[in-house]
Amino acid sequence: MTNSLAFIGGLEFDIFFRGLLSVLVGVVVLIGGTYLIVATNTGSRTGGLIALSGLFGWMMLMGVVWTIYGIGWVGEAQSWELKEVTTDDLELAESPEVSELGIALGRDNDFFEAIDGADFDTRQNNAKEFADSNEDLLNGWEFLVASNSRRGDAQSAAEEFLLEEGYFESTADYIPLEYGGFAFGGKPQGQEGDSLATRFTKKAESILKFWHTEELVAIQVQSTLPQPTLPGQAPP
After folding, report:
1. Rounded CA separation 212/74 (Å)
2. CA 122, CA 117: separation in Å to the nearest integer?
3. Does residue 52 contact residue 42 with C-beta atoms inside 8 Å?
4. Residue 139 burial (CB < 10 Å; 0-12/13-18/19+)?
5. Strand order through the sheet with 142-143
6. What is the number of alpha carbons within 13 Å of residue 187 lying toward its C-beta?
7. What percent of the chain has pLDDT over 70?
8. Is the pTM for the entire model greater than 0.70?
């Protein structure tokens, strides 16, 4: 008797036996309880058939539920698709939206010529503030700072295409323009400093839009000039 009690007490520390006993208790309570109730009204044979039918029906439902992906159906992964490469002036682009951007920026990108700052980040922030305060001049385009994730993803896709198609041989043959990232369309994006009501409104608009509107991102790069390395001097 003492050995039996010691064995039962030891089961508490064994995860396998605890799980096994839990499953057995659940099976007895669920199936046995259902069978006992049904069998008292319909007889042992009919009650057993009804209980087994309920068991297999429950197993089928659980199987259907478990086959559904836990976070819902996963659609096509988000990616950028290249629409156009313009090597001439931006206002000569085939896309009318991009052409309007080129007209707004000017032939030499003099839209941001008054922007200054002690460092790169300061100039980017100043350019963002200037573009937001003059958004009507950009014909619906939004300036993207270099740290913006949309600009980074689109720029990576654009650079990969330029190298694959032979526009440039390596990344040393071009440099991305400091003020060369713009976005047009897409779902409403929250801005730093938005009020609670504004964030709620943009979130509601984003949820209610079941189909994504087309979003365009323009990335500007400039080719570098070949500079020979003189003997004994650092590379240019």
Report:
1. 16
2. 5
3. no
4. middle
5. 142-143, 174-185, 215-223
6. 15
7. 86
8. no
* Residue position matching structure tokens 């698709």: 81
On the 0-12 / 13-18 / 19+ scale of CB atoms within 10 A, 154 is buried
Q: Is the pLDDT of residue 52 over 80?
A: yes
In which element (H, E) is residue 219 found?
Answer: strand 215-223
- CB–CB of 54/34 below 8 Å? yes
CA-CA distance, 135 to 130, in Å (whole number)?
8
CA–CA separation, 105 and 235 (whole Å): 33
Q: Which residue has the tokens 């570098």?
A: 224
Token readout for 144 is 């993207």
Where are the strands (E) in 114-214, listed by range?
A: 142-143, 174-185
- Which residue's structure tokens are 């057993």? 48
Scan for tokens 């836990």, then name that residue: 70
